[in-house]
Design goal:
The protein is an alpha+beta fold. The chain is 60% helix and 18% strand.
């Protein structure tokens, strides 16, 4: 900047000399050259003032270019035209550099998201669409290496490729149904592989998550049909169990009726008064039904079991004994 000021000062001096010589020629024609000397001095003073302003402007420009600010969540590295990249990483706030010889490069080290969706195959050769979201930031202590190796857009150069590769490698280890039942394990393995691969490029991963996981329409329809078939099989199994329970109920009821009949036969055989008691209970129920009904009954009282004072009991006992002697009572001979 000092060289530029000297050149500007010399240019103004040359200009003043030329103007002074012309004005001197004009003044010499009028008053014998006295006016020419006064004009030259005036132009020299103007040239000196302009040179001073140029120097002041140059110094102001140099002062403004020697200061730069680093915002919050950012870091700066400096390129020097003599020694190349400086190893120092500058933090937030106001920093100094040498104008023209040094140039600051500011990196954003805040966490930023990257999304990737890819189509890959599972272990059982089912096509799977998986979407992954990664929160990343550069390693603040390795910004010089990142700039020299990857440049400013390091994330666009590295993350898509390694995210795609790690996702496909992990999904290929599991069957399609395991990707659903073991989703947390799959996400953890993808995260570990990605962090290891990104660490080789000095990129830090804060979080890795599976945001979407879907299968081909053919596989989805096959899974739905399988679920329907399993539901039908479960329902058929419960129907078989219900039929077996009903069969056991019928057998148990038949056994109970057989035992009840056997007990009744034994009671009648041992004590004929048991039939009289049952006859009285039946007559009471019939009498209650007939009394509550508005119809008229013209049947024989013996047929309605209402003759409790006649010889109906004797006839019934003789009939029971005769039938028992001929055929046996409930299987007995």
């Amino acid at each position: 900047m000092a060289g530029n000021g000297n050149r500007m000062r010399e240019a103004f001096q040359n200009l003043s000399k030329q103007v002074g010589s012309k004005m001197g020629g004009v003044g010499g024609g009028g008053k014998g050259g006295g006016g020419g000397g006064g004009g030259a001095k005036l132009m020299q003073s103007v040239a000196r003032s302009a040179g001073g302003l140029a120097v002041a402007g140059g110094l102001a420009y140099a002062g403004s270019q020697s200061l730069y600010n680093v915002d919050g969540g950012h870091r700066a590295i400096v390129f020097n035209r003599v020694v190349g990249m400086k190893e120092t990483v500058y933090g937030e706030g106001l920093n100094f550099n040498i104008p023209w010889f040094e140039r600051p490069i500011v990196y954003d080290i805040r966490t930023r998201p990257v999304n990737l969706q890819t189509l890959t195959g599972s272990k059982d050769l089912q096509m799977v669409t998986i979407a992954i979201r990664v929160l990343h930031k550069p390693n603040a202590n390795k910004l010089v290496w990142i700039y020299q190796t990857l440049g400013m857009r390091y994330d666009e150069k590295i993350l898509p490729s390694i995210m795609n590769e790690c996702a496909k490698a992990v999904v290929a280890r599991y069957n399609a149904n395991e990707l659903l039942t073991k989703r947390d394990i799959v996400s953890k393995e993808i995260s570990l592989d990605l962090k290891e691969r990104a660490g080789n490029f000095n990129i830090l991963l804060e979080d890795v998550a599976i945001t979407h996981l879907s299968f081909s329409p053919e596989y989805s329809r096959a899974v739905e049909k399988k679920q329907v078939a399993e539901q039908h099989a479960e329902r058929a199994k419960y129907e078989v169990i219900g039929a077996m329970q009903e069969k056991l109920t019928i057998v148990t009821r038949a056994k109970g009726e057989a035992e009840s009949a056997e007990l009744i036969g034994s009671a009648v055989k041992k004590n004929p008064g048991f039939m009289k008691l049952r006859r009285i209970d039946a007559a009471r129920e019939i009498a209650t039904t007939i009394a509550s009904s508005g119809n008229k009954v013209y049947l024989n009282s013996d047929s309605l079991l209402l003759n409790l004072l006649g010889d109906a009991d004797e006839k019934l006992e003789k009939g029971v004994q005769g039938d028992t002697e001929k055929r046996g009572f409930f299987g007995r001979k």
